[in-house]
Amino acid sequence: MPNTKFYLYSRPPTMSEKLTELARKIDFGVNDGDPGEEEEEKKEEEEEKPLFEQPHWPFEDIRDKIRNAHTEMSVLHDVLALVKEKRYMCLDPVHTEQPDSKQYIQFLALKKSLSSAGNILLSGAERLRSSHLVPTSSPGGVGAQRPGQPTEDFHTELLRLRENWRLKKVGNTIIGDLSYRSAGSHFKHSGIFEVSKSEEEKPGPSNSIMPGGVSPMINRSIPPQSSLKVTVPAELEGSAYIFVCIKKDEEDICSAQLSSNDFTTADPRWQLKLEKAQNVLFCKELFSQLAREAVKLTPAIPHLVVGNQITATIFPGIHLLIGLCHSDNKGTLTVDPNRLQNARTQTNSTGPCGSGSGSSSGVNVAPGKYTHENDLEHSLHQLLHRVYHHTFQHPLPHPVYAQMGLSKRRRIAGPEGLDRNQLLQTVKEPTLLEQIICQVQHNFLRLRTMYVIDQLAMELKDPLIVSHWNAFNSPTQSCVKITIVTQGYDSVVRTKLVIHIYERTLKCICRDGKVMTMSFEPQELRNLILCQISQHNMAAVQCLAKYTGWTVLSSEQNIGIGALEPLGNASTVMLASPMGNKIIGVRSVPHPGVTVYVASAPRNDFYPSSVVSEQKWENLAGEWREVRLERMEGRNFLSKIELLMAVLTA
Q: Does residue 373 contact residue 364 with C-beta atoms inside 8 Å?
């Protein structure tokens, strides 16, 4: 083969190939001898060794290296000669004989694999088909299968149950936990429920299924049955809530309800049952905590805890009633909210809110005669959420090696140099019942303030009273802005005041910047608004006089003469016409109202005497005559004053 070059490459053997080659040299057919025989062979070899060995030549290693180098040079010389002289040698691989493959056996193995894969697909399709067939029952007890509604498997529903509830297996029983122990609860009730597989109804002999797979007597309104059966304790069945009511003697003011949720989830059935049971446990635990705190607190008027009701006095004559209302599935009420009005005078074996026999059947649980207060209910729910959130959500330590749960006030106690009393104040926290009482006091005071303002706005048509309530309020503080304005003269003058409502006090900020603090008595607020109305009338008359050209002779907010007024002090304003011949006197008091007097000059009854001889003194105003404002035309006080000014000026 001329002009053809072949290059021979030989890669070194890998570790696996070398291991295979060494393993081939081992003769596994030779039986291993006994240990005694091996020792005898070693002894024989030692005996066969010559007693004297030839001495080792010192240049033997050098000779071996020179020999190896000569061998490599010879090989290199042969390769160069082969390349230079174009003489090649062809190497043919040695082919080993392959064993005869049995095609029939391979075909059988492939057929078996395909059949097993087909069986897996068929079983999966059968399960999918059965999942779309749900057993239903008619009123006559007929069972059938209806396509279109999937039936829930026991393990599938158990997996869904584990998503929201804590479960564990004890022996052959699956139990769950409804309690709030993970949130720091120490309530005595365990809150354990049991999960089991529901018994499936077997179809009877009267079942008749149409060719399409649908029974002709199917009640389509009946939902599919669940494969889970949840059993809760008997004391946690039914529904419950905490009923909060504010009463004044025998008058009901407002009420609110407290519960853990609204039970909006109705599917599956066990979810609704567990939510109701947990709500009953929540209400019982909450009422138990409030009852313990009511017994421990020592207010001026002690709290009363009787049965399932707590009575607290928030204001003189105003009481707060907190009751636990629980009804089972049979309609039996443990506490009837419609009997709360007689709770302070009636006590029986079932509690102050129940009937004498301990149950009342067929009574609606929701209170119907009480005014439901959504703001109070919302603030109380926020309070409960905040309390339970602080129970298991602690602030991070600063620095990181500090103690867990320290508040910011306690962390800065050292740098700020707080004393013992201040440190005790940082540790003290109001109890849950105290916070509820504070919110109820504020809510009642807010309702009372709103009632007083509305009543004055209805009674007094002149001037108008407009109130604007702030929408961004806290549970214990509200704010209202009151604007006093005269209809048609709103651009002349406006009187504004802001009232801050706290738990037991009111703080009023007037137009002139004065700050007045009032108690919870409604008469104080009413008197304050009446005084502000009186000052508004005087300010409106003075502003109107400037627009009409009249002169303000004098203005006094608190005059010291005259009879003692039943409420506040009288204020006066003296106005003179542009010509100076007519004078109007306005006297305003908070309770009776406004009185207007008119005098004219020159006087008709002036006669000179030896004491007053000059004629100029006849220009003094004469006798004051009262103006009957109720008989004058005009829709309000300022319009009548304007009309009077116009007549006197003409």
A: no
**Angle CA 151–154–160, to nearest 5:** 90
Provide block-wise average pLDDT over 10 residues at a time, the chain (650 residues): 52 80 73 60 64 63 89 88 73 67 81 92 86 49 42 79 89 89 77 85 43 44 71 90 88 82 64 90 89 92 92 93 85 56 39 33 37 77 77 73 75 81 82 90 93 94 93 90 93 93 95 92 94 93 93 88 80 90 91 88 67 66 85 91 90
Q: How far apart are CA 638 and CA 491, in angstroms?
A: 13
Rg (CA), the chain: 52
Angle between helices 522-548 and 432-459 (to 10 degrees): 40
- Cα–Cα distance between 543 and 575 in angstroms, integer? 11
Whether the pTM exceeds 0.85: the reply is no
Antiparallel, parallel or unpaired: β 304-306 and 309-315: antiparallel
Residue 208 CB neighbours (<10 A): 9
User: What does the alpha-carbon distance between residue 403 and residue 395 come to, in Å, rounded to a whole number?
Assistant: 10
* 552/540 Cα distance (integer angstroms): 12
382 sits in the region (left: phi over 0; alpha: psi -120 to 50; else beta) called: alpha
Distant-in-sequence, close-in-space partners of 278: CB < 8 Å, separation ≥ 6: 178, 191, 236, 260
Q: How far apart are CA 519 and CA 445, in angstroms?
A: 10
How far, in Å, CA of 527 to CA of 524, rounded?
5
> What tokens does 487 get?
């209809």
**Residue 15: CB partners within 8 Å, gap ≥ 6?**
none
What's phi and psi for 523, nearest 5 deg?
-65, -30
Cβ atoms of residues 608 and 615 within 8 Å:
yes
* 72: its two tokens: 């490599």
Which two tokens mark 377? Answer: 């209910």
- The conformation of residue 18, written as its DSSP 8-state character, comes to H
Q: Is-contact 436 383, C-beta < 8 A?
A: yes
CA dist 208 to 137, 138, 143, 151, 205, Å? 12, 11, 8, 20, 8
Cα 228 from chain centre? 30
